[in-house]
Every structure is written in C-alpha cells, then in structure tokens.
Model the fold of this input.
Amino acid sequence: MTLSTILDRAARQLIHTIPAGLPAGSTPPAGVALAVRAPGFDQTAHAGFRALPTSQTDAVPLGLDTQHDLASVTKVVATTTAIIRLMSDRLLELDDPVRRYLPRFCDGRKDEITVRQLLQHRAGLWEWQPLYLAADTVDAGFEFVDRHPLRYAPGTARHYSDFGFIQLGRIIGSVTGLPLPEAIDALVIGPLGLGSTQFARSLSDDVATSSLGDQAEFVMVDTGTPYPVPYTSGDFSGWRRTPVRGVVNDGNAFHLFDGVSGHAGLFSTLPDLINFADAFARYRDHEQLWRPEVAEEFFSAGPDPEQALGFRRSQLEVGGRQLDLLWHPGFVGCVIGFVPGHGVSLALASNRLVTPGIPIPTDTLWQRLLGAATAVLDETLGSAHREART
Done:
C-alpha cells in the first residue's frame, strides 16, 4: 500500500465504519476530507457527501474546496493566533488583567483573572450558557458574560469555556480598535494567506451542511446537561428545525452575535486549514508574523498537561519518538493539529452531525486520522530519523 493510499483508505473508512466502543445507533458523518503534510509528504483525501443524501436531495460530493463551519476551531485559527501576533508586537501581555481591556469584567474575583487564564481555560468562568435566552442584543450578551457570577475559583482547575474565548475576542477588539472580523483579517487571515476563510457565512455555495438544526442545544437547554441552565426550550422561539448550511451552527454565535465571536463563527476549507497548521509546524520560518519565543510559550504545557495556551496538547509517537502535538477540535467535526519544529501538520474536515443516528465524536474521528497519519509519518520522518542516527 502506498503512503497516499493509506489516507484515501482512511477517508473511506471514516464514512463507512463505526469504531468499537461507541453507543448503539452511532453512525458516521456524511462526508470527510483529510490532509497530512510532513517533510517529503503532502497528501489529501476526501470521501462522501456535503449533506445526507435523501430521496429529495441530490448526493453532492464533499470535495477539498468545500467550505466547513469550524465551530471551536475558531478559538485557535482566529483568537489564539491573533493574541500571539499582538503579543509578538508587544501590544498585550499574558499576565495582563482582563479588566484592563474589559473594565466591566471586575466584580467578585474577576479582577484577578488574566489573559493567560482565559487561554488556559482556568479563569473560573462558566463553560456555556444559552446567551440568546438571556439577551437580545450583542451588547446585552457581552454584559451578561461580564456580570455573570464565576462558576469556579479562578486558577484552580481547567474548565473548557466558550465564555473565556468570547472575552478574548473582545480583548482583541479592544487592543486593535477594530471589529473582530477586521482584526482577524489583518492579523491572521491576510498574513497567512487564508483566502477561503471568513466569519459568519460561507464564501461559496460549495458548503457542507453542518447539522440538521438546533437539536443539540435544544436538548442541552431542556436537560441541563452537561451544564445547568435556568431556562427551557419553550423560552425561545427561534430554534432552527431544518438543516443548517452556510451559516454558523453555534447557537450563541448565530442567534446573538451575528456569526462573529472569539469562540466560534469561522468558515474555511481543508487547504486553508492545512496551510494554517503548516505555518505553526514551521513556526521559525515565519518570524515576520510572530516572535518564535512567543509561539513557543503558547506551545508549552501549562498546569494541565493536556492544555497549552489556546491549543490542546498531546503526544504523537513517530519512529519511536514522542513528539508534542498541538491541536484543537470543533463540535461540527473539524480539527487542526501540528507538531511544532518538525514540519508536521494535519487537518480533518467533516460534517459529523449530518447523520441519521448518533454522531461519532469529533475526537474519535481525529484519533482515527492520527492512526493513519502515524503509519505515514513512521515511513517518512521515522526513516529519516533512523538514517540520521546511523
């Protein structure tokens, strides 16, 4: 089997097979696109469809240039990267108090919270609330996040929080004096050449359906799982009950923030995602964008080994070596990852929520890509390492 065939086979398996250990009724995504790039290897693969084929809709293939809702991958492609650039320009520091940029974020122990803690998900903020049930304007939504009591003591533990990245997006706006889309265009999208990436809506009609409606958040509100909320689904009349395509899937971003937030809202393509990951995989080649020592601080483990600044962190074994893998998933089914300093980058784009049964978790899809990528990387990087040792 050739190295490129490994990736083609992985793409087909992702849309046709169910990994062991998942709940009964689990079904694969309608489509998937994959990319792996490393020294001496640069391959992509795709399989499946942009939407779930039915008797009423055509089965349109999902291609490499299909647009995808990035969901929480926005947290690193837009927000974390913009913070890296602002720090590299010495316009912001990690240990700056958040209240310096957001003066209304100050009651209780909020005045202790720093930019670093937001990036580490250790600020003590709530993970999620349906802000569109608490506010009806963007400013009212921001005020709710500013005033809402902390859920945890700051700095005590990691609790993955959309609220924290909503605040980071606002900090970027405060520092630059620009609306968030303009700031991200200037700091990230333009400099990195991500011409198929933008906030709020897809750039073309070639776009994957992201879900069959707002069912996931509808259930979260009614069950209070995984986060308790003081509302019921009957408190909101704007639920989407038809397939979501070309507009933001995340409820807070769509229903309240006009598709633009620090935690979600970007659309992009697989080529842009792999190019983004590649820039960080070869971060020392981009000193015109960021200071290498700033990037390295963002790659390092914090108090929680699995969390860096903005990025998640794990290990990837290649050729008998343990390499640091920085990555981030999105709820809709996209993931980016890279091994800094080794030129290894990976990207996954899928519409995992478009399925007749229980969606396969994004992390499970990612682990299956990593399994295929490891076989490729063992052959490319591993052989080069062995030759260097001899």
